[in-house]
Amino acid sequence: MHSSLTPFLPRAAALGALLAAVLLAGCATEKAPRNASYDFGPATTAAAPAPASIDAVVVTDVTGSAAFDSERMYYRLNYADPLQSRVYSNSRWAATPLQLVTQRLKTRFGQSGAKVLTPTDASAGIKILRLEMDDFNHSFDSVAQSYGQVTLRASLFQQHKLVDQKIFSRKISATTADAAGGARALTAATDAIAADMVAWLASLPTAQVVPKQ
Question: By the 8 A CB rule, do 166 and 154 touch?
């Protein structure tokens, strides 16, 4: 009887390991209702940047890779394979991250007192803020611990000359290990970057221009 059970034991152990891996992955993938749609929610004044003295500025649409120009919600399991980007199967953004971040930044800038213009409204001499998205992702360090990270490159121009350039990055812990938690963390990270950008713009001298090399 002992000999008949021996071949079964390795197979049972392998099956158990596989099942554990599937359960771990499932904990970090999808807990939201089917076909859930997320945006950044209302831009409440509680999270608005502090009032600042900022000149009128043209804010162009945020640009970035094709992954950020899609309504898909991506996440990474850093503890399993940090090089693999995965997609939440039953959750999507209501608009692309590029669109969501563009609108949120314009709203937050306006709440700080800045006059936000579009490229078609601009007159000669108005500063132009160009924004590039380098990162927008929900990442898991373990099954239960995750964070949302947003990284933007901001370049400020005036009369076709570079005034200043800076990279802004914020990482906010997610309160839940699912798409909803990731959405909340990425919203908070974007709001934090907006406040950082307002402080940066307010700190720049009006006539400061980087000379040509």
Answer: yes
Mean pLDDT of the 104-112 span: 94
Tell me the residue ranges of DSSP E strands in the chain: 36-38, 57-59, 72-77, 86-93, 116-117, 127-140, 146-158, 161-173
Listed residue (210, 208, 209, 194) closest to 52, CA to CA:
194
CA 208 to chain centre: 30
- Using DSSP's 3-state secondary structure scheme, residue 184 falls into helix
108 or 23, higher pLDDT: 108
CA-to-CA dists, residue 7 to 17, 18, 133, 166, angstroms? 17, 18, 54, 62
Q: At what angle do helices 97-111 and 179-203 cross, to 10 degrees?
A: 50
Q: How many residues does the chain have?
A: 213
Identify the three-state secondary structure at position 152. Answer: strand
Average pLDDT over residues 25-49: 71
> pLDDT band at residue 48, thresholds of 50, 70 and 90?
low
Residues paired with 130 in a beta bridge: 155
Q: Could you tell me the pLDDT band of residue 118, with boundaries at 50, 70 and 90?
A: confident
Q: Residue 185: which residues within 8 A CB-CB, separation 6 or more? A: 138, 146, 147, 148, 172, 173, 174, 175
Is residue 57 within 8 A of residue 117, CB to CB? The reply is yes
Residues 100 and 61: beta-carbon distance below 8 Å: no
Name the 3-class secondary structure at 180: helix
Interval 174-196 mean pLDDT: 97
